[in-house]
Amino acid sequence: MALPHISVEDCFPIVRQTILDTYKIDSFLMNYPYSDLERLDMGLRKMVWGTYSTNSAIFSLSPEQDAWQIIILKSVLGFYNLIITVTNEEHPTMFGFMPFRTEPATPPVISRIMRENGIPPQYTADMQQFYYTLPVVEMQSLITTLQHLITAFIPEFANSHIEHVNYTSEQHKIDFNEERLHKFTSDYLAAIAEHLTLCGDAVASGNQALASERLKVLLDSALSFTDTPLSPLRERLAYLNAFLATKLLDTQVHPSYIFNQLHTFQLRIYETTQMSELQHLPYEMVRKYCLLVKNFTYDNYSYLIRSVVNYINQHLSSELSLATLAAEFDKNASYLSNEFKKEVGDTLTTYINKHRILASLRYFNTTDMSVAEVSVAVGYTDMGYFSRLFRKYVGQSPREYKKMLDK
Prior knowledge:
Elements: H1 8-23, E1 27-30, H2 44-49, E2 69-74, E3 80-85, E4 94-100, H3 107-116, H4 124-132, H5 139-153, E5 161-166, H6 178-204, H7 208-222, H8 230-247, H9 255-271, H10 275-295, H11 303-314, H12 322-328, H13 333-344, H14 348-366, H15 371-377, H16 383-394, H17 398-406
Parallel strand pairs: 2-5
Antiparallel strand pairs: 1-4, 2-3, 3-4
Helix pairs in contact: 1-5, 3-4, 6-7, 6-8, 7-10, 8-9, 8-10, 8-14, 9-10
């Protein structure tokens, strides 16, 4: 059943969301003079080749071209795009679909693409970040879905035909430029960082529905469970876990609850061998951290213990022995120790260590500080002791964790 009274501009959001939800392929509306064509590959072609030209229809649509086309673009850079003309004007309105692959991007495939396009091997990690996040789809399924979906809004589209444009033999002058690579990766990572921040903010508010929605956008943009090798997949899940945990430090959730949940998820990330469980884990993280925000605060603590907790939070880099805290609050040391253990569940020493390690994660996640600098910032002058505690609670050394973030 067609819906002929809906305009192209009105139907596009429905088409975009359906394809994004079903295939994880994003799209955008293209209007003459088509000045935003770089969005088709998120700037990858320009990054690799600089100024370049092609005789493809995507850069020189002519009035002689038939209306209602589905143009399948196969790039020498190892991915596909789609362009669909949805009006029969001299300069038609088009839907442009972002990069995707029809087969997983394995390390050997990425190495071959880099070699053939003159990308130096030292940028392998940057290219893997891009290619591992490309959705993998079955082409005919995608085309059939689009044909049926668009025809529902534009009945004339039932007469559409498919045109293949194959660039795999096209030669380009190699003009690799490190500055362009930096901009490409910076723009790409900035978009991911924005999705990550929005997800974290929703978790910190305790809004599970919104957090799950934003998590889906983040995962669609930054992570493919079917194509990313297990080791980097675990590293990215560990980073997400630490990021969400540190976001809760800005709430009234007691740090001991945050750390226990962080540690539980870290163990599951590195111990599970089931891909299905790893795929479900981010949504479970969001759910559990949102529940913490809703259910656990400082409200159950007495005025004394709440004051002690707040003092510890504000003086992590200072001396925080039992004697120091007892003197600060004019209490008997044994009494303070017993009351703290009774209300919090941890000894003062354990609580302080946990909270310092949580704070160190925040430093690692948000600054370029060295391991030694972070150790001092959270109150440990003995870096060896700091490293042992970090490994105990996080499951890896500070250097290993920082190296993971720097990838």
